[in-house]
Amino acid sequence: MIVIVDERERVKEGFTSLFGREGVPTTGFRASEFGEWVSSAATEDLQSIGAFLIGECDDHPVSPRLLRERTGAPVIALSDQHSLENTLRLFESGVDDVIRKPVHIREILARIAAIRRRVHDEAASWTDLGGLRIFMNGRDPEINGEAMPLPRRERRILEFLAQNRGRRVTKTQVFNAIYGIFDEEVEENVIESHVSKLRKKLRERLGFDPIDSKRFLGYCLNV
């Protein structure tokens, strides 16, 4: 999920629509309410966030360093001012990247992926598990070198589990990552259906179930 911070409703709505076309859930905040939310948000909510996009917040500046006290998600500044001085000022504030508008949504997603690779010092943008290779860039997984097409949400669940390999994630964490924290139109139990279908497909192709599921505790990859 992407969090957009901007005082302008039309900007937040515009980005929400564009990210939605790419299948990426978002939520938006005014700068004046964002700081309070970050301070009070549950840790599992923050762990589901893929990145923060910071736009116009002149009256209530957002501190990237404060964000990092609670989450390691990339912080990217969206700049309307095409000047070196403004760009340097934003980098000095602690952001991970500065993007000048207008910009294509796919470029933003590519920059987020690049930052996450650097932060986690990943030598490759995939995770191997037996004959299963899970990509982190939106590609369908491969089994023994052959692509395994998956519906978008099943693929993203598999990616989220791979990103959190070695630890168990709850159903709520998976839901927040796939649908967004504030999506009230979808029931959280839909995750159980997605995971069940995903496990069946993987079991048929691999001959074993790579996803360990424990009631009330959540899911993890059998690494």
TrEMBL record:
This is Response regulator transcription factor. The keyword DNA-binding applies. One of its GO terms (cellular component) is cytosol. Keywords: DNA-binding, Transcription, Transcription regulation. InterPro entries: CheY-like_superfamily, OmpR/PhoB-type_DNA-bd, Sig_transdc_resp-reg_C-effctor, Sig_transdc_resp-reg_receiver, WalR-like, WH-like_DNA-bd_sf. Residues 124-223 bind DNA. Residues 1-116 form the Response regulatory domain. GO terms for biological process: regulation of DNA-templated transcription. GO terms for molecular function: phosphorelay response regulator activity; transcription cis-regulatory region binding. CDD domains: trans_reg_C. Residues 124-223 form the OmpR/PhoB-type domain. Pfam families: Trans_reg_C (PF00486).
